[in-house]
Write a structure and sequence with these properties.
With 157 residues, the chain is of the alpha/beta class. The protein contains four helices and seven strands. A seven-stranded mixed β-barrel has the order 1-5-4-3-2-6-7. It starts with a strand and ends with a helix.
Length: 157
């Protein structure tokens, strides 16, 4: 099994970013916004494609084998195994730690959904959970009281 993070050399990222790693297949489907994707130049170049127009699209960044392969924008060079970060994966860049963490790996049966406190509705979720928990406690105490009293009334007959 591949590791879920790898050391990288970041360039142009000051804050963490959540990105879809794009190969030519992701680009051709047009499903994901290019501004949220990092183009995997390793995959593009392995197919023998050299298209300057492709590099001029508004990518969030680039993945490359060498720093000099990254255009004058944000990007990273993975220092570990090449397969740790692949097209189709969703990664989180962590510039302060010089690493990239894989948050979703395409085709992996053990992907996990991460929930964080960064959700815009945290307070709503907490309030609803508190109300639900209070209702559940109330229902349990009334339910057990009812079943207890009905049990007593049945035994008195």
């Amino acid at each position: 099994m591949l590791p879920l993070e790898t050391k990288v050399i970041h360039r142009g990222w000051d804050a963490p970013a959540l990105l879809k790693i794009a190969g030519l297949d992701e680009l051709s489907t047009g499903v994901f916004p290019i501004e949220r994707m990092a183009l995997d130049l390793r995959e593009v170049r392995s197919r023998g494609i050299s298209a300057p127009a492709l590099l001029n699209l508004p990518w969030a960044g680039f993945v490359a084998d060498h720093q000099e392969d990254i255009p004058d924008r944000a990007g990273f060079v993975a220092l570990g195994e090449r397969d740790i970060v692949r097209p189709g994966d969703v990664v989180e860049t962590q510039p302060w730690a010089s690493k990239v963490a894989v948050r979703h790996r395409r085709g992996d049966p053990s992907n996990v959904l991460f929930a964080t406190e960064r959700c815009n509705r945290v307070s709503t979720l907490n309030i609803n959970f508190t109300k639900l928990h209070a209702r559940h406690r109330s229902h349990r105490s009334h339910g057990s009281h009812r079943s207890h009293s009905s049990h007593n009334s049945d035994s008195g007959r």
